[in-house]
Amino acid sequence: MQTMGISQFKAHALKILDQVAKTQESIIITKRGKPLAQVIPYRNSDMNPKPGKLANYLVFEKDIVSPLGEEMWEACK
Questions:
Q1: Which CATH code of 2.60.40.1270, 1.10.3210.10, 2.60.120.10, 3.40.1620.10 fits the domain covering 2-75?
Q2: Considering the entire predicted model, what is its pTM?
Q3: What is the rounded distance in angstroms from the CA atom of residue 11 to the CA atom of residue 16?
């Protein structure tokens, strides 16, 4: 992970943001040698669904009894 001073980031912010997007690597911005902020690449939120938003990720089966048969289903109780 790369680090850089805040003055260098300020002078070249657009170029640095393009670099982060292209390389997908984070950069830590420092002020007087101490970490101040971290620039991280954007990741599509579809990869990490929010709580309660799983409806598109679930598969619903209409009949879960038939694959086993009535006899096996009763025996498994």
A1: 3.40.1620.10
A2: 0.56
A3: 10
